[in-house]
Amino acid sequence: MENTQVANALERRLDLTINVADLDKDADARLKKLGRTVKMAGFRPGKVPFNMVKQQHGHQARHEALTEALDRAFGEAVAAQNLRVAGYPRIEPKDSADEALMAFTAVFEVYPEFKIADLSGKEIERPVLEVTAAEVDQTLEILRKQRVHYKNAERGAQKDDRVVIDFLGKKDGVPFDGGQASDYPFVLGQGMMLGDFETAVEGCKVGESKTFDLTFPADYFAKDLAGQTVQFEITVKQVQEPVLPEVDGEFAKMMGIADGDVEKMRAEVETNLKREVKKRIEARIKDQVMDALVETNAIDVPNALVEMEVQRLMQAARADMESRGIKADQMPVQPEWFAEQAKRRVTLGLILAELVKTEGLEAKMEQVKAKVEEAAQSYENPEEVVRWYFSNPRNLAEVEAITLEDNVVQWVLAKAKAADKAVSFDELMGAKA
Fold it and tell me: Which top-level enzyme class is recorded in the Swiss-Prot or TrEMBL entry (predicted)?
């Protein structure tokens, strides 16, 4: 066996030969073994003539023998050349000058060989946010808004009001598709409708009708309306103002504090908020670290691994759609949707594996235990959560992967230019006051 021309950076080709006499011998041995148990009309088990067994099962036996012989020959060939195979080989038959031999070519990819690039020029920002009473108050305000209810208002509609309207849109005097609705509810200021539409509704009282022109944005999703000016007729049928719950004992009970202690609720909100802030800061840093690793390590990745990752992502997407009640035939999943994501994930996987191998960044058991105990604190019975994780090694797999990534983050931060940067609560949390 010998190497032939390399088609691309990671593709390899190996010539394999199989001895026909050895193949026939193996196939006959399989048939003899099968003959001890094979059943055939007119014969007792084990008494079927060998020629009849061969006639019925010979093709299968020869195929199995050939498959095993090729696997063995391929394994020996890649081991002899110390090749790390990525994915599975494609076996192609070829002509043989020797009738005693069957010839094949194995086409496959190997893992890339590379060294982690210098990261000293990369800049990474570490977000900094101290949780104070102001952030707790802002979080409580968000929680209040999430529990808003509405009451009828005897005034014109304004921002944050819930309105119910009828509307009819016309282009050149003719109603257009999607431009009509009855008893349509929405909250002003939440961006459910175009800004100019909401501005026209503001100030209107119950029973009031209004006609106004509206120009759709040039990038509006409905291409036939993009950049077009139309006319809307609206009738306001209900205006309701928001009513937020007071931060009192009843609100504390709503938030899970059984005795309604407001200070206890504030303390719990602060604890949860600090945990969430820490998680989001770590996620931002990790994203920057992974970007830096991908940008500085321009490595070739095996197409076989990318294709396998695409299939895995497609399967996960189908499972997610099914869990939401969407059937696969309603929204067929396309491989190209996941191509870039799959390539990035494979690239990162190869880089992280190289870092673990060369820098010893594997997850230590004490790190995994600390990570489990930290995560368990957000549950009602932390001890039970810890026991569940350690009851089965498979339960720890995700924690070990996260811990490994944390080790990589710390390693990169020590190599790159890392600097603290203060961030606002809204910027980090994506919250709207």
Answer: isomerase
Outline where DSSP puts E strands in 68-173. Answer: 85-94, 101-110, 123-128, 149-152, 162-171
Q: What is the CATH number of the domain that holds 185?
A: 3.10.50.40
Q: Which domain holds residue 343?
A: 123-130+266-429
- The first and second tokens of residue 226, run together, are 């993009």
Considering the domain architecture, whether residues 180 and 220 belong to the same structural domain is answered as: yes
pLDDT in tens, the chain (433 residues): 444 444 578 999 999 999 999 999 999 998 888 888 888 887 877 788 888 878 888 899 999 999 999 999 999 999 999 999 999 999 999 998 899 999 999 999 999 999 999 999 999 999 999 999 999 999 999 999 999 999 999 999 999 999 999 999 999 999 999 899 999 999 999 999 999 999 999 999 999 999 999 999 999 988 999 999 999 999 999 999 999 999 999 999 999 999 999 999 999 999 999 999 999 999 999 999 999 999 999 999 999 999 999 999 999 998 888 888 877 676 788 899 999 999 999 999 999 999 999 999 999 999 999 999 988 988 889 999 999 999 988 889 999 999 999 999 999 999 999 999 999 999 998 854 3
Q: What are φ and ψ of residue 42, in 5° steps? A: 95, -5
